[in-house]
Amino acid sequence: MHPDDIHETAFKTRDEHLEHIELVLKKLAAANLHVKISKCTFDQPNAISLGFQVPSIGLSVGPKKIAAVADWSLPHDLLYKILAWPALDVLHVLKEALIQAPLLVIPFTRTTAIFELYTNASGVGVGAMLLQNQGNGP
Description:
By secondary structure, the chain is α+β, with helices and mostly antiparallel strands. The protein is built from four helices and five strands. The strands form two sheets. A three-stranded antiparallel β-sheet has the order 1-2-3. A two-stranded antiparallel ribbon has the order 4-5. β4 (about 115-120) and β5 form a beta hairpin.
């Protein structure tokens, strides 16, 4: 945990975290809401959420996502390969970059935090990237 974020965190120690979990479970039970404990995991060094590994520090791509990218097959049609050879090279570079994705970091969320949002759209899809420069890049 970044020292500047301690004041923004509901708990600072493992015991405080466990107390917080107990409090949440009690509040849910008081509202007649139930948690299926068999679907829960507690006190884990990391977890998988939305295909990402969430360790105690940072964030990284989960193994299933890496395997899915590694298993991408390139087009087999010879004419397509001849016409799109540069695109295939780019696809290969992109595939390798995704497989060896760097550790992602949890963003700073203080009121002074600066984010950049890049968007793009076409007739078949939309995309967006939310970036934050934390001074650790190339």
